[in-house]
From TrEMBL:
PANTHER family assigned: OS02G0202900 PROTEIN, OS02G0504900 PROTEIN
Domain F-box residue range list: 61-109
PROSITE patterns (alphabetical): FBOX
Protein name as annotated: F-box domain-containing protein
SUPFAM superfamilies: F-box domain, Kelch motif
Entry keyword set: Kelch repeat, Repeat, Signal
Pfam family, one: Kelch_1
InterPro entries, per database record: F-box-like_dom_sf, F-box_dom, Kelch-typ_b-propeller, Kelch_1
Statement: the UniProt record of this protein carries the keyword Signal: yes
Signal sequence region: 1-20
Membrane-spanning segments: none
Lineage of the species this protein comes from: Eukaryota, Viridiplantae, Streptophyta, Embryophyta, Tracheophyta
């Protein structure tokens, strides 16, 4: 397979219009030099970090013989996603590039980024869980390699630069629960897990989200079980967690999302409220400060962000979607079509710009509901054949 791809790449390098060191493709959609200035600037800004990743003993050699690296990188980006792990095994230089942020950027500019649905699914025997992946049509199901470290609960999951991050949580060993600060990353391009830097504070049942390429971890419970107000941010370029301004009040069991470059934290409980909190904490990274709103959701059992809208399901009402519009900070309720028992809850997933609602009951009559926010009025709801292999614990969408 690798030899076949090498032959194909060398054939590409000899095609008319492909000249080393110059504009190499005659087709506009295949030529970086024809890309908008903004995209060229974005690509060039990331090159310094990629060069540092590739600085090893093979640094003096080209990625592909007799081709400039820009052309070689584009050629590697054309390889189908399913064959990338094999390509990453050819040499250290290829593997470093395929794991880099620039690789995803090149694939995106080439229009080759694929969308995948990652689901954490409970095993049918009830003895554990595993990650499984489906493509944008809900097909080609496969399982991820087991995640390193002990089995955890209460962890956070977020996607950044096309990679899945699983953070913190707690594990029970010999009957004792221990909070963790460990962070693991799964890269689908090489089909493997890696260990990242630990968080500054061990925590579980906390809120987390990606905003402008940075990962935020907010509140939760600490090693002694007390609620936390601490907040930290992770930069994948430096592999470093940094503590930032804390919340005004400790908060646990909450969730977070990003809109218009700001971090929104809602739900859960606070030490300063009786019961569940309706306050929304909003962090502005430019001002490095928090403010608050008062019209949040409480006791949220599922949530997902689609475009500029947040979709929530509250424990007290499993038959309606609560939809938050970030443009005017308003909520509206959307009734769910009748399906199965009215007490059945759901987990959310997002695929192809649509919201999937996976039933928490594994009955034959319980189908996956699909909500299309862009459909004509009255046609938003459908059913889908996409289903996890077991009970869905959580899901995220990865583009790589």
């Amino acid at each position: 397979m690798v030899i076949l791809y090498l032959n194909v790449l060398m054939i590409i390098s000899k095609m008319p219009g492909c000249i080393a060191g110059k504009k190499w493709f005659t087709e506009p959609n295949m030529c970086f030099s024809n890309l908008p200035n903004k995209e060229n600037q974005t690509l060039s800004k990331s090159k310094h970090s990629v060069r540092s990743e590739l600085s090893d003993k093979d640094d003096d050699s080209s990625i592909l013989p007799r081709l400039p690296d820009d052309v070689s990188k584009y050629c590697l980006a054309l390889v189908p996603h399913s064959d990338l792990p094999a390509m990453a095994g050819v040499c250290k230089r290829w593997r470093c590039f395929i794991q880099s942020k620039e690789f995803i950027m090149v694939r995106k500019l080439a229009g080759l980024v694929e969308e995948w649905l990652f689901l954490l699914t409970a095993d049918k025997e009830g003895k554990g869980s595993h990650w499984e992946v489906m493509d944008c049509e809900g097909q080609n199901r496969r399982s991820l390699p087991p995640m390193p470290g002990p089995t955890k609960a209460g962890f956070g999951v977020v996607v950044v630069n096309g990679k899945l991050l699983v953070m913190a949580g707690y594990s029970v060993i010999d009957g004792t629960a221990t909070a963790s600060a460990e962070v693991y990353q799964y890269n689908s391009c090489v089909n493997s897990w890696s260990r990242l830097s630990n968080m500054n504070v061990a925590r579980y049942d906390f809120a987390c989200a990606e905003v402008n390429g940075l990962v935020y971890a907010v509140g939760g419970n600490g090693v002694d079980g007390d609620s936390l107000s601490s907040v930290e941010v992770y930069d994948s370029e430096t592999d470093k967690w940094t503590l930032i301004e804390s919340l005004r009040r400790p908060r646990r069991g909450c969730f977070a999302c990003g809109f218009e470059g700001k971090l929104y934290v809602m739900g859960g409980r606070s030490s300063f409220t009786i019961g569940n909190s309706k306050f929304v904490d909003v962090y502005n990274p430019e001002r490095h400060s928090w403010c608050e709103m008062k019209n949040g959701c409480v006791m949220v059992t599922a949530h997902a962000v689609l475009g500029k809208k947040l979709f929530c399901m509250e424990w007290k009402n499993q038959r309606k979607l609560a939809i938050f519009n970030s443009e005017d900070n308003t909520w509206k309720m959307e009734p769910l079509p009748l399906t199965g028992s009215s007490s059945i809850g759901f987990r959310f997933g997002i695929l192809d710009g649509k919201l999937l609602l996976f039933s928490l009951e594994e009955e034959p009559t319980c189908k996956t509901l699909l909500y299309d926010p862009n459909a004509a009025p009255g046609s938003e709801w459908q059913t889908s054949e996409i289903k996890p292999s077991g009970l869905c614990l959580c899901s995220v969408t990865v583009k790589a």
